[in-house]
Amino acid sequence: MKFFKLLVLFIHLFIFGFGNLLAQATATHQQEVTTMYYYDFSGELSATSISQIETEVSQLVNVFEAKVKYKEEKQLGQLVVIVKEKPRKSEGDILFQPTDLKKIISQHGLMPKEIKFETINP
């Protein structure tokens, strides 16, 4: 009888432990989500300002790549940003904030217009 109780207890512990292990393995292998942001702006922009904007944006959290496309004759441009980040796991996670793009554009004397984004499936 004692052997049977120990066997049942062992089976329960094994199932519980295996379930937790499987849940942790799934959580740690969550794939990165890639998002592309397109921020339109207008205003006069020099070549040095273009590289400064790209550098500042590249330093933001989870930014993989930043590129400024600018048409000098129309004084219109677009900031293209590729962000790669894992899904949020807790409140303390620090994620990319698109509002930082508007702040950087405005700091360079440009007029932010419209922001668009698309999520790219892995």
In summary, what is this structure?
This protein is an alpha+beta fold.
Taking pLDDT < 50 over at least 5 consecutive residues as the criterion, the unreliable ranges are none
Q: How helix-rich are the residues, as a percent range?
A: 25-40%
Q: How many E strands?
A: 4
Question: How big is the Rg?
Answer: 24 Å
Helix-strand pattern: HEHEEHE
Q: Which CATH class of the domain at 36-120 applies here?
A: Alpha Beta
The CATH architecture of the domain at 36-120 is: 2-Layer Sandwich
Largest sheet: 4 strands, antiparallel
Q: What distance separates the N and C termini?
A: 54 Å
**Strand percent estimate:** 25-35%
Mean pLDDT: 86
- Broad structural category: alpha+beta
Q: Give, in spatial order, the strands making up the sheet with the most strands.
A: 2-3-1-4
- Spatial shape: rod-shaped
Number of helical regions? 3
CATH topology of the domain at 36-120: Alpha-Beta Plaits
